[in-house]
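FYI - complex with arginine, inputs then prediction.
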Amino acid sequence: MTTPIWAKHAHEPDAAHADAMAFMSRDDVRLDRELFVYDIRATRAHVRGLRAIGLLKPDEADAIDDTLGELDGAFHNGTFILDERFEDGHSAIESYLVERLGDTGKRVHLGRSRNDQVAVALRLYMLDVLDTAKRSLIDAGRAAIGLARRHERTPMPGYTHLQRAVPSTVGLWMGSFAESFADAASLCALTRRWIDACPLGTAAGYGVNLPLARDRVAEDLGFDRLQINPMAAQASRGRVEHQVLAALWQAMQEVRRLAWDLSIFSTQEFGFVTLGPAFVTGSSIMPNKKNPDMAELLRASAAAVGGALAEIQQIVALPSGYHRDLQCTKAPLIRAAGVTLEALRHVPPLIETCTLHTGRMKDAIDRAMLATDRAVRLSTEGVPFRDAYRRAAEEIGDATGTADASGSIDARVSLGGCANLGLDLIEDRLRTI
Ligand code: ARG
């Protein structure tokens, strides 16, 4: 590793030191690859801020900015590799500048600490994650609306406790995912607003003895507001990450519900759905198998987010001030965000390529499933509901044979019911989140 930026003298780390350093850095520098472009962007804004208050001369600021632009390009095209030579991404930026610009490069860290440097890079990263998740969720909602519209009145059983309950439709089933994905997308948007505050300029957590142009730098980076109090800014580290993952967890619960439904409905026992060929795999031994692996892996992806939430929750229980523990919130955040964004990408094609076996769905609605309608109908004719319930149970509570569910479906006219799904309203929401 190159000499740490915090070393007071040039020194040669001995083996024990190197071993301890490796533990303390762990996978930090590799994780910083995810944050590097944001760190460079925030560093450029910091440099413009220093120039604005006269602490960098225009030619110095320009030279640093040009060199950072060059680093950004080199990182993108792979000629600069962020690896274990550096303690972290922040050190790599400074070394790159010092190597190329000498003393001018050494000026870049004036007025900031790695504590606010990492915090701002993480904020920018999380804002992008939320935006991408939101877009994917809207796409998933649209795919669900599409299937709902194609099968608006196609009957299928509605289940509670996984037991046949009342007649339902594919429109209702898929409309539910459209609305739930809209809810998850709007939670991403709300969370985005909640975290849209700039910690840069809070330094190590106590500010610095400089008139930093904090407002200007925050605006330059596109933030909506500042994190004002430096200690509060530090205290929010990890907790902001937790809230971002909480929003992604909501999204992944919907993915998990969809994955569950599709894996159950594609069993031979149900036979309601055949998944698209790209989303199933075969067995190495059983030639007859078609397994819903994509649905199952999407389901398991939700676990990565739940696990990351728990891990971060354990780490952030800390007193005031920066603690190195906080570094350990990066791995769960980056892993869970990556898993979520990957998973969400596959949801729209998974929905779009499903084949529905409408005959099987229709045949699975038995006459006993009309008992609730019967009880309600009798009540509207004056029988008290509890008596109507008992009469319906006697009449058809155990009835077998396939029912004609169309009357039941057409009668569900209140908003949200099978005959009045409100798909336009849900679509409007998807458009305006
Ligand atoms: N890798 C560190 C982290 O993620 C960067 C900040 C280091 N600050 C420090 N005081 N050691 O927290």
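The mean pLDDT is 96. Residues 28, 88, 114-115, 118, 322, 324, 326-327, 330 surround arginine (CB under 6 Å).
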